[in-house]
Amino acid sequence: MDPMLADLLGLLRLEQIEVNIYRGESRDIGSPQVFGGQVLGQALSAASRTVEGRLVHSLHAYFLRRGDVNAPIVYEVDPARDGASFSNRRVVAIQHGRQIFNMTASFQVREDGLEHQATMPEVPDPESLRDIGDVPAKRLASLSPRMREFLTRRRPFHVRPVRRADAPDPGPMEPAKHVWMRAVDPVPDDPVLHSSLLAYLSDYELLGTATLPHGVRFVDGQVQMASLDHAMWFHRSCRLDDWLLFSFDSPSASGARGLARGQVFRRDGTLVASTAQEGLIRPRKPV
After folding, report:
1. 277 tagged catalytic
2. pTM score
């Protein structure tokens, strides 16, 4: 298995240090704090380990403080309720004696019922698109150092955007984008692991959608950004080693905050998850 993917899977499995208490490490992916998707994925992994015979169907989370990438994160799980069909868990993430994150997740016994779904957007197949890190040397040399680092950083996932991040700055654009993503190698057959990986990836590229109408980019230092809250609904099963289309849009930005929404589709058009996030978007004043 690819070493970076193996490392990510290890991060999500966590270490149990007491009943309903788990500990996770962090990795620096180039952001000024712990990547929010990592905390989401680890918190969901911790909650899932306290539930049997039920799969997550939703989570609602708040990011309270910056996470320190150089310190472990402790996850305390409160087994709030186990009913006939649903289980509810509350998770608190702690670093340096303070809460940095909290989350409520709900789990359900498998059931059949009414079904309908949104239609997957018509976009090019992933095979026809270049990976985000596949940038011609001449173009790479013309980019800012932060953008070069962002694009060339090794990842445990293939990331193939329909609209390239390294394209010449086009100015304000429609607040929508589509990105194909897939793990670089096969992932073990563990539904909890795939759900945790999906939570991890759901935070990738999402909030940046709210900056598109304003012609600013985080990697160029034009704006301060941080996740404030995150919600996710798991509709159907999926595998993270198959191509998934992440379709994002942003209906609003105001009060130094932006709202972004996402839908995740399997390649055959099946809608597997929906997500929404509000985050801080504060323009930086030129020095």
Report:
1. yes
2. 0.92
